[in-house]
Design brief:
1 helix, coiled coil, single chain
Length: 115
């Protein structure tokens, strides 16, 4: 009977060693998984922050370019308006110069008997 108990004790000891080995392997796997997840989260947070920072900088550049473009466009419209005003003034001046001449020519033509 003592031999049977001894065999059972040896079997239990071997089983405990195997259980301990499996537990150690599980702890190692859990540790590696945790490290991997932490590293992955850290990388994702850094990448997300970096991506967001890049996008914000690009939006700021685009916003400034749009502001500059709008100001330049408004200045161009003001220049066009000024040029149009100058043309209108020039045509009015020309009309004022030519109208009396046309009236004079019409009067002379009537005097000479033209229609």
């Amino acid at each position: 009977m003592a031999e049977v108990c001894k065999d059972i004790e040896q079997g239990l000891a071997a089983l405990n060693r195997k259980i301990d080995e499996q537990n150690k392997r599980l702890r190692d796997l859990e540790r590696r998984q945790k490290e991997c997840c932490e590293q992955h989260d850290k990388n994702n947070n850094n990448n997300n922050n970096n991506d967001l920072e890049k996008r914000v900088k690009e939006l700021e550049k685009t916003s400034e370019a749009l502001k500059k473009g709008i100001v330049e466009t408004l200045n161009n419209f003001a220049d066009i308006e000024n040029t149009n005003r100058e043309f209108i003034d020039a045509f009015q001046g020309l009309h004022e110069m030519v109208a009396p001449l046309i009236d004079t020519v019409s009067t002379i033509a009537e005097f000479l008997g033209g229609d």
